[in-house]
Amino acid sequence: MMKVDKEKCIGCSKCLDDCLVNDIIMVEGKAQIKNENCFKCGHCIAICPVNAVTTSEYNMDEVKEYKEKEFSISADNLLNFIKFRRSIRQFKEKDVEENKIIKIIEAGRFTPTGSNQQDVSFTVVKDEIDKFRELILKNLNKKGKSILNNLRPETMKFKKYAEMWMQMYQDYQNESVHNDRLFFNAPIVIVISANSSINGSLASSNMELMANALNLGVLFSGFTLRGAKDKEEVRKFLGIKSNKEIVTAMVIGYPDVKYFRTVPRKEADINWK
Hints:
The chain is of the alpha+beta class and 273 residues long. It has 10 helices and 8 strands. The protein folds into 3 domains: 2-62, 2-Layer Sandwich (Alpha-Beta Plaits), CATH 3.30.70.20; 75-129 and 181-253, 3-Layer(aba) Sandwich (NADH Oxidase), CATH 3.40.109.10; 131-178, no CATH class. Strand 2 and strand 3 form a beta hairpin. The longest helix has 21 residues, at 129-149. It starts with a strand and ends in a 20-residue tail after the last strand. The model has no long low-confidence stretch (mean pLDDT 96).
């Protein structure tokens, strides 16, 4: 429940004006939250100039007062940071500290979600990463065989991937773990699931930025998603709830490669109206 401290409230109506669902009214010059249509977005908490709004739904100790020195980042630095990120496929044999894993997840937890659903879940695969690798490679091998056994003109574009998946599984069977082309010997994989793929994707993007800020490297593993798709044993292993879908699989570790510059991209496809 959202609550306004009437002793603190100065009746400025900023919370009322900013409430998307019109769930706040003024009573005798004080704001009052009806808690009828409220979906706990927290705008009223953030906008109140005298910190009069609280909620029993969440931990209010997490609320931070705005301080420019701690919150601001220049637009140019942010853009350069985004341009410099690379997908990493070379990792050091070094564990990722738990406090860094938590910060990465926090970046996902505080990413906005549609209607404040907060539906994004995180599965950190660390101790059982070898089991997870085997599970995904086994499924990719089956997919590869199925593709090659049913080649048609429209599926020819998948032939190279089918052959690659089967070879990856064969390498694993031969205990060629040093040739791991799925997780590239990274120490952890974080699997993001959500009711909404948009919510999960937005969270994943912020999580990658946080990982980069922590001097870690990330690979969004499309092969892992392929090996997990429609596989109940994978969902069970990861603890994915029945109402959620696997959105991304983030392979994370310390990079064993150094880049010196950004790379070019296509011109932006923009329509001005």
